[in-house]
Amino acid sequence: MANRYAVKTGNWSDTTVWDGGTLPGAGDVVRPNTYTVTIDQDITVAELRNNASSPAAAGGSFLVSTARTITANITGSTTTQGMVTISSAVSVTINGNITSDGSFKTFVVSAGATVTVNGNITTTSVATAAEFTAANAALTVNGNITSGTSST
Q: How far apart are CA 42 and CA 46, in angstroms?
């Protein structure tokens, strides 16, 4: 398993967006590294994350604006809102688990998108795993949803 990271903003399919000049593969942990990467093709990787792992910095996001299948575990762990943003009325399938372990939203879904998660959604602390910002958006979860708690 390799750690892969973006070196500029651009499309996932553009090899110049990625360290090493090749696309991330099935065993890779992928970080946006403060940039915005548009997922413009179906992808299969081990995990999408937005925390720091040298030399990648924390932050950045992945954008989905066309129908896609994303096969990956997705873990949000910084204060970045919308590590994965679905920005149009499209159908997106996530094959993997979604974990949010900070006080932010891992997913932001807008414009009436339909999202199917074939995996578990877990939040810790006071985290929110997903925010739906438009009417007619739909979420189907074929797995468990576990919510975190907090004390004040």
A: 14
CB 105 within 8 A of CB 79: no
**Residue corresponding to tokens 């997903």:** 130
Q: How far is CA 64 from the centre of its chain?
A: 9
C-beta neighbour count of 118 within 10 angstroms: 15
Q: What is the pTM of this model?
A: 0.89
What is the rounded distance in angstroms from the CA atom of residue 132 to the CA atom of residue 144?
Answer: 19
* 108 closest CA partner among 132, 90, 124: 132
| Chain segment 62-103, per-residue pLDDT in tens | 999 999 999 999 988 765 567 888 888 899 999 999 888 765
CA distances from 136 to 2, 69, 90, 98, 121 (A): 38, 20, 11, 22, 21
Going by C-alpha positions, the residue among 117, 22, 30 that lies closest to residue 69 is 117
In whole angstroms, what is the distance from residue 11 CA to residue 25 CA? 15
Residue 118 CA to residue 96 CA, distance in Å, equals: 6
Judge if the upstream peptide bond of residue 24 is cis by omega within 30 degrees of 0. no
